[in-house]
Amino acid sequence: MSMQHEVLVVGSIGLDSIKTPFGEVFDVLGGSAIYFSIAASFFTSVKLVGVVGEDFPKQYVELLKKHHIDLSGLQTLSGKTFRWKGNYGYDLNEAITLDTELNVLANFNPQLPDVYKDIKYVFLANIDPELQLHVLNQIKKPEMVVCDTMNFWIHGKRDSLIKTLQRVDIAIMNDTEARELCQESNLVKAGRIIRSWGPKRVIIKKGEHGALMFANGSFFSAPAYPLEEIFDPTGAGDTFAGGFVGYLASCGQINDIDMRKAIIYGATMASFVVEDFSVQKTSSLNQQEIKDRYQEFQNIVRFGE
Ligand code: AMP
């Protein structure tokens, strides 16, 4: 794959405390950029832009290095690392945020190392949309910009978010977020509204029900993997994005079929991350396991000629 691109990601790096009906963990490795980077690292090389505090455990830095993630854009500031506390009930599709402590993220002013500025593939993971734009503005000639967000920013910084979306090729968000952002309950209409702001494609994730892709003249509906053991859904969205963008970056020239395959790679990676807390499952995967599950996805949607 000679045309393989590297991917730059900016997003949160955090310590998560999570309770699901199946267990509870405190201060485990999390954050949108982390889930994304580890998933994408199975497809291409990843350059990370993010910030941590002085309390960020060294073993987590080692884990990122093990995945060959370029950390020259990682800042350590005095203060505490971003923290998120969330709960899930038996409907695992909906995270209930109990607490968001921005900490060092509140003073983050990402300055890209020069070697990052020529990058072509960019993922703006869930973080303050003003930071997303600030990073994008430093990249000379991006070819593929993909963006994610969440309700925290839709409620708090809607106007900035729409400004970021104007500069994006593909927007990814979940169904609730798309409905809230567009103030529209119908997802087909919401997809159209988001596309009218700029993105050529919109991917709307529906948790355990799969994902939809809207583009001009093309519609794709992907299933979710029928997992029986979902332990913790945290990071599913960012891991989906990691598989999706990572695969696209490994393709070179991209057509509509590649986009569809990328969605299935995204869904494949997401189906792994929810099997354990944090990145425990995705960080210990191998290429064969990914290939096998991708193949199972193909079997799920096969229905004859
Ligand atoms: P998801 O893929 O949507 O489940 O994202 C989960 C990750 O998002 C968690 O690891 C959190 O640390 C992170 N997160 C939660 N709230 C925010 C926020 N307001 N901004 C950025 N990242 C967040």
**Parts with pLDDT < 50 across at least 5 consecutive residues:** none
Distance between the termini: 31 Å
CATH architecture: 3-Layer(aba) Sandwich
Domains (count): 1
The CATH H-level homologous superfamily: Ribokinase
The helix/strand series, from N terminus to C terminus, equals EEEHEHEEEEHEHHEHHEEEHHH
Number of strands: 13
Q: Major sheet: size, sense and barrel closure? A: 9 strands, mixed
Percent strand equals 15-25%
- Radius of gyration, whole Å: 18 Å
Q: Regarding CATH, which class?
A: Alpha Beta
Bound molecules: adenosine monophosphate
Shape: globular
Q: Can you give the mean pLDDT?
A: 94
Strands side by side in the biggest sheet = 5-4-1-8-9-10-11-12-13
Helix content: 25-40%
- The CATH topology: UDP-N-acetylmuramoyl-L-alanine:D-glutamate ligase
DSSP summary: helix tally = 10
Would you mind describing this structure in some detail?
This protein is of the alpha/beta class and 305 residues long. It has one domain (7-300): 3-Layer(aba) Sandwich (UDP-N-acetylmuramoyl-L-alanine:D-glutamate ligase), CATH 3.40.1190. Helices cover 36% and strands 25% of the residues. The chain is built from ten helices and 13 strands. The strands form two sheets. It has a nine-stranded mixed beta sheet, with helices on both faces. α3 links the parallel β8 (121-124) and β9 (144-148). The model has no long low-confidence stretch (mean pLDDT 94). Bound molecules: adenosine monophosphate. Adenosine monophosphate (AMP) is lined by residues 12, 14, 16, 30-32, 35, 84, 100, 126-127, 150, 152, 234-238.
